[in-house]
Amino acid sequence: MQTLVVPIQNSLPELLGAPRSATAWVLTISLVAAAVTTPISGRLGDLFGKRRVALALIGLLVLGSVIAALSSGLVGVLVGRALQGASMGIIAVSISILGDQPDPRKNVTGIAIVSASLGFGGALGLPLSAWIVQIGDWKLLFWATAALGVVTLLSLRAAVPASPGTRQRVDVLGAVGLAAGLSGILVAISQGPVWGWISAPTLGFGLGGIGVLFAWGVYELRIGAPMVDLRLLARRRLLLVNAGTIALGFSFFISQVAYMQMLQLPADTEAGLGLSTFGGSLALVPSALTMMALAPVSARLITVLGGHLATCLGSVVIALSYAYTLLWHDAVWHIVLSSTVLCAGLALSYAAIPTLVMDEVPREATGSANGVNALMRSVGTSSGATVSGMVLAATSREVAGSQVPSLDGFLVSFALGLAGALVCAVLVWAARRSR
User: Fold this and answer.
1) Per-residue pLDDT tens for 255-286?
2) What does pTM read for this prediction?
3) Residue 85 contacts residue 33 (beta carbons within 8 Å)
């Protein structure tokens, strides 16, 4: 879902008969929907049973895929992509389901694999999507995800046992307020480079979202069964882990933006390596396969080292990969090596963080806590994409009548990614030392 439409992003204005400023929402709306619905999905899993909510989320994925596949205009595709994005809440619910299993070896391994899927799923999805577009109609992308959704739905029904919920009252107003506030802020972050950071729409969405979240927080603190338990999240250890998650997501997504652009820019530019979209996607497949292969190994390391030390170790590995790229970046294999090492560190950190979250909350709140942590990751990735895009745009130079990112812009982005990884390590280590 994260990278499904990236190969057709430049062709969407022609395919949908809409301006580029409007078709950019095909990618943005799924990211916003994912960020908004993830914490709500986690809480609903605690209330009504995690298996039931997981099935509903995959149902949204199938429905959204079919709507997008049958649509010929922008509105239908946006509705389908929003439903697909909403299904991303399955990550937090799945982690919570695995955390409930009695065998600690199995649940840590399962959590490691599901957490790592956030990285290798997107990395594998990019070349697969590009290949599907090359061999057939672009609507095949959505029919393919519909088919995968049906397979997943049947597998969930067959393999995942039912889980009881607490059956407390649903905080509908809290869910609406959280969705409205987050949507305003995330829209401002994602569209700020397009609208202008001091434009009326950006300020309206951003400040409006902040105001709504402030009122939402006051309301949540005054009711007995809130959508998000802010007092629980304010525990110092959990607060530091969530802040570290933002920094980690920021660091990771800078690599997603910068590496792909470097690989695809023309070879005669200052930083470009001259690969096609498909070729650039294939160059990042080794990193995805590494992340997938190391997920079980990460589980073993978490068991031996503990979650805090494992997260810090993974973050330091990410920082070292960026340090390498700052020095060596003028060949395809340099990027392949750097991205592979980075994803090795990411596999360890992403696997360890959910275990830290669940250690700090009671069992009946694991879904909600994991949902909020996944939201923090989304905030980090959105910020990383926005900041990296701004840096590359600000340092672009004119080549043959077009603005092309300069090498200096990429180096600044890599330095920011390195800093984000180190900030994550410091914050999570501080959580370990905190009482």
Assistant:
1) 877 888 888 888 888 888 888 877 888 888 88
2) 0.83
3) yes
